[in-house]
Specification:
Length: about 140
């Protein structure tokens, strides 16, 4: 998360840099899981038999590697989307993310804080949106297994 804050501070308000920084932080998790599952699939007897029969790399990937990795990758993608939403909202909350003309959930919470005494329910709208998005992606990740 420190790397995301650092890259967002270098180019403040840059939509592309913010997503690049979050992707840079999250790719390691995908790499480790996919590498471990792929090593197991590559050393399986089915993969050896297909390789000895002369099937190409695309066939081996499609028939042996992708089915063994697919559920874990989809689960990681759903959890990664939820983590990205929380990261974007928290970065926007501390004014490091996207700048005010752009609609962003963390920035909406900050802009609505002065009105909390008069209308406390108004701050619930972006918070409920964050909650529902994260809950939806987490439920989707639970179904992907």
């Amino acid at each position: 998360m420190i790397l995301v804050l650092l890259l967002a501070a270098i180019m403040p308000g840059s939509f592309v840099m913010l997503y690049f920084a979050i992707s840079l932080v999250l790719w390691l998790e995908y790499y480790r899981v996919v590498r471990a599952l792929t090593r197991v699939a590559v050393s399986s007897p089915q993969m050896e038999a297909s390789r000895q029969l002369g099937f190409g790399r695309f066939y081996l990937f499609k028939r042996h590697i992708w089915p063994s990795v697919q559920s874990s990758v989809l689960t990681l993608a759903a959890f990664g989307a939820a983590n990205s939403i929380l990261a974007l909202a928290s970065i926007g909350f501390v004014y490091v993310g996207l700048q005010p003309p752009v609609a962003e959930l963390g920035l909406m919470v900050v802009e609505l804080l002065p009105y909390f005494d008069e209308a406390p329910w108004i701050i619930a709208q972006p918070l409920v949106a964050i909650f529902m998005l994260v809950l939806g992606f987490n439920l989707l990740a639970g179904k992907a297994k």
